[in-house]
Amino acid sequence: MNNNFFKNIEKKTGVNMNDVFELANSLQNANFKDEQTVRGVIRRVSQIANKSVNKETEDKIVKSIINDGKQLDFGTISKMINNTNNGKK
User: First and final CA of the chain: distance in angstroms?
Assistant: First the structure.
């Protein structure tokens, strides 16, 4: 893809695409049954998305991923953060 595409996404979302790519690379070999790993990813997604995640929300997401077998990717976590926080920072 060309750089203009990514620059347009950055401009519209305020999300740095390099951060997204770094996160995606870190997810490839991560152990998603490990609570600390999952919490770290949630915090990183929260930071990239510029959304705060309270302890209760983080616990729900961790439980969903570890215990319920939810797929872990940027979109899944971002959606969970937005739904739980109702889009509020």
Answer: 31
DSSP 3-state assignment of 60? helix
Interior CA angle at 80 toward 28 and 1, to 5°?
50
84, 60 Cβ separation under 8 angstroms? yes
Question: Rounded CA gap, 26 and 36, in Å?
Answer: 14
Give the residue from 34, 45, 33 showing the smallest Cα distance to 85.
45
Give pLDDT tens digits along the chain (89 positions).
Answer: 567 887 887 887 788 888 888 888 888 888 888 999 989 988 988 888 888 899 999 998 898 888 876 666 667 666 766 665 544 44
In this structure, are residues 61 and 42 in contact, taking their beta carbons and an 8 Å threshold? yes
Spatial distance between the Cα atoms of 31 and 24, rounded to a whole number of angstroms: 14
